[in-house]
Amino acid sequence: MTIQVAIHHHTQYCYDRMVNLSPHVFRLRPAPHCRTPIRAYSLKISPGNHFINWQQDPFGNYLARLVFQEKTDQLTVDVEVVADMVTINPFEFFLEDSAKAFPFAYEQALREDLTPYLKMTEESPALKKWLKDFKGSKGTVDFLVELNAKLNKDIGYTIRMEPGVQTCEETFSRGTGSCRDTGWLLVQAMRQLGLAARFVSGYLVQLTPDVKSLDGPSGPTEDFTDLHAWCEVYIPGAGWVGLDPTSGLFAGEGHIPLACTPIPASAAAVTGATDKCETTFHYKNTVVRIHEDPRVTKPYSSSQWSDILTLGEDVDKLLKKEDVRLTMGGEPTFVSVDDFESPQWTEAADGPHKRERAVDLLGRMRNHFAPGGIYHFGQGKWYPGEPIPRWRYGCYWRTDGEPIWRDINLLGFPTVDYGYGADEAEAFMGELARRLGHLGKFVSPAYEDPFYYVWAEAKLPVNLDPFKFNLKDGIERQKMAQVLQHGLQNPVGYVLPMAWNAYDQRWDSCKWSFRREHLFLIPGNSAIGLRLPLESLFYQSPAERPLTPEQDLFDTLGRLPKYKQLAKQAETKTAKKGKEPAIPPHPQVETFMQTALCVEVREGRLYLFIPPLTHVEGFLALVSVIEATAQALGICILLEGYSPPEDPRLKKFYVTPDPGVIEVNVHPSAHWHEMVENTEALYEMAHQARLGTEKFMLNGRQNGTGGGNHVTLGGITPADSPMLRRPDLLASLITYWQHHPGLSYLFSGLFIGPTSQAPRVDEGRDDALYELELALSQFPSGQVVQPWIVDRLLRNILVDVTGNTHRTEFCIDKLYSPDGPTGRLGLLELRAFEMPPHAQMSLVQMLLLRTIIARMWKAPYRHPLIRWGTDLHDRYLLGHYVRRDMEEVVDDLNREGYPFQLAWLEPFFEFRFPKWGEIQVGDIHLELRAGLEPWHVLGEEAGQSGTTRFVDSSLERMQVKVNGLHRDQYTVMCNGFELPLHSTGINGEYVAGVRFKAWQPWAALHPLMPTHAPLVVDVVDLRNGRSLGGCTYHVGHPGGRNYDTFPVNAYEAESRRISQFWNHGHTIGPFVPSPSPAGPGKFIPQGSGKVAPTPPLPLRSNEFPHTLDLRRWG
């Protein structure tokens, strides 16, 4: 986003007497080739009684020549330059084929033109020796980068106030120099190498970055500007390329050239003479930000943020006063800041680097949120086409402040090899069984099934070694090689059957017996606790199996035992003397159990598989014994298996994988200040873990992480959930969102529409609103005591087009599902929220939701649903109409007494509908912005993982907004077609959308249709049929640099976006309008004998009246 700055350069010469001034020449105006957009320039010189003439020197630089009319005792020069600090990629240039490798030679004609810039002005043995010792790359660009960096490293920077420039010998002998000295030294070095180079004098502007760098210097702590000097070298194809040896970098938007000349003397800022006198010199350079567009790295000013926090506290007080008991959680997603290309950060769910970053973030979050918490490395969701379930790294801690685990050094990580083996596993299980009540007799070693692996080995081709594998082999092949290397005769781990006796507060166990005598695992690569041969155990009919009801989350729960109490109980059981419990000769139905604790070592790490438990007290008791065992043996452990039972007395968060991202399931917050602290801390910890919150498309468009930031609304306990206590609150929210499409589209990602991850209830199903109205009419008012009502009324209404209850804008899967306790958490999930790139933007989203809920709690919103029809994918995919809709939302909140401000949503408008460019044609202002485009899902095709459906992402949408237009005289056209302009209600202001095919994928909705880029937008004078001016938008790089890698940071992304828009390029000559669908003709009674052509589709569509669809004319 653009930052507009004002550079003020003040210089004053004070003389000790009245003197005459000779004609002076000032080189203080930005040069014609300056790439930084200059919006305004002013030069003021005192004494004011002078004549001034603007000239250009032989090198094209601007000169101001002044003749002074009277004596003076001072000369004052004030310069102000107003510039747009848009990002400029200094490497965005081409090289001629002849200049791609160094050394190269200029063509003869070009060499003659560059003669002044090739002339060596001094012979320097030190420079020649330095160049002789320098060994650069063959590629020209790499060579220049290395040469510039080498000079920056070898010559230190110093501020030198003496006039003039050091010779090369002086600079090398001193080892230091000012920017003038190193700039001139680099010029001489380039000429010595046969490259044309020139000396540049100008302004350097450096702005404080919004986000500090993780890898090196972050830049100045305050905005800075000063006179500066650097070098430019001429490369065929690229032209003049700036290199700054002071920083070792190429010249970018902060380098504003004033004069470029063959020698430094010709580039002096001021030249002239005075009578003999003593002179005192004063100067000052300042830079001031005069305008900043809202941007994702700094979305709000300090005053705005203070107002946001104040409203958050006020809403919090109201929610407490009204006894809403609202908690809010989320599922933010993050991406790597180092890797934008590999599958794990683009489309795949898993990858080694992703696991490494997830573990790093997990550790940071545990230290911040949950000291005393316990890690749990379990399995999460299993999606079709994936070989194994996805991992889920969790952390649990107690809400009462008591620790679950004390010694953090005894908790291991799945990315570290601790060098453990079978001996550590056997010792740990033995000591753990003793501490659990002398249960060692019940432990069984677990083995891989030899019959299976003999059979699997026999199937291998004869030329493959079964003991060897590589990472490209399938999971089954890798597992077989690992098993054979380990040895089938060696135990894989150890199993202790056990179950928690809630009545006696102790662990019960039994001995498992098998027909094959030993415990042979089910083949696979999961933890041994998931591969136990349960079907081979002592048979129990369903009627004989003991009932173990899970904890009812709607019960009133007491306090959990303290950590010391749990530890003391464990010590008491361990200290009991006597024989171990006897093993009965035959298993008894009453004492037999099918759950077990497992210990195994994988890749040098010791894992403990936690059996399924029904009460959290059992889990805490087990963990206390495990820690005591780990402490006694000095072994780091990792917990896996079943997670603790759902219980409001435990808090938790998860770090999980999703395609291309890491997802964090954040623990809910009950208060605004808690939410602010948690969100800001999470973003900062992710940043320190080298995870970011934004991605970029190939063309530089910013699109967040590509993952969601789903919001969960509920209560501290399911019984506290506002959605279950007041079902009319959910009915109000559904109706309000249906009435305001802006709430659905402003915060969502780019993938929207009926087949997206979070479709609106009225997208894709014509009868959905009719059925929803029937359901809403049955909602009771006020508080109710039947929590199941909401699920019964909406379970078959809030679904997507395939009937999926999870992929909806309002997901009630965890509200009060009949499936089990994990689905009866009282949670409503709002899924149409993409990951905001800044913590403050995320909090503003949350504040908007909290404010709407407070408004609905006091005054339920019960109105008929609106039949939007095609307006949803016509008007409301343009930023103007989304803004207008959000204005209505903000006005509604303000009327109800909540001072939410529309300006707080400005960063979201800029992020979701970025500006492509703008031009001024006379009194008419034209602005182009990106619009939203729902992606069409194509038909089913066979893929590697089964049946798949591709998405057609080739369509894009553009918003054209025009101000100062008189419709009777002028109109706006795109690629020769008139736009369907609609008035915004402001005199002379109109808006329209343009839908076009941006690129040509092999699988598309209309694969034979060509692309429509570039887009030429003209302001057309209807009276003379000519374009008065226009602009051009290129989907790709206009110079043919078709990028095949993603931008590495926001700066490169911005430079790509800027290069796609030209503020010129209107249609030349008389404007010939495109033919209308129905042309003139004549009647021939006997027929013409020609086959009637297929009539073209009309440009104006009744379904989408606000959009010009260029596909209708191919």
Automatic annotation (TrEMBL):
<dbReference type="Pfam" id="PF01841">
    <property type="entry name" value="Transglut_core"/>
</dbReference>
<feature type="region of interest" description="Disordered">
    <location>
        <begin position="1078"/>
        <end position="1101"/>
    </location>
</feature>
<feature type="domain" description="Transglutaminase-like">
    <location>
        <begin position="171"/>
        <end position="247"/>
    </location>
</feature>
<dbReference type="InterPro" id="IPR013589">
    <property type="entry name" value="Bac_transglu_N"/>
</dbReference>
<dbReference type="Pfam" id="PF09899">
    <property type="entry name" value="DUF2126"/>
</dbReference>
<dbReference type="InterPro" id="IPR018667">
    <property type="entry name" value="DUF2126"/>
</dbReference>
<dbReference type="Pfam" id="PF08379">
    <property type="entry name" value="Bact_transglu_N"/>
</dbReference>
<dbReference type="InterPro" id="IPR038765">
    <property type="entry name" value="Papain-like_cys_pep_sf"/>
</dbReference>
<protein>
    <submittedName>
        <fullName>Transglutaminase, N-terminal domain protein</fullName>
    </submittedName>
</protein>
<dbReference type="InterPro" id="IPR002931">
    <property type="entry name" value="Transglutaminase-like"/>
</dbReference>
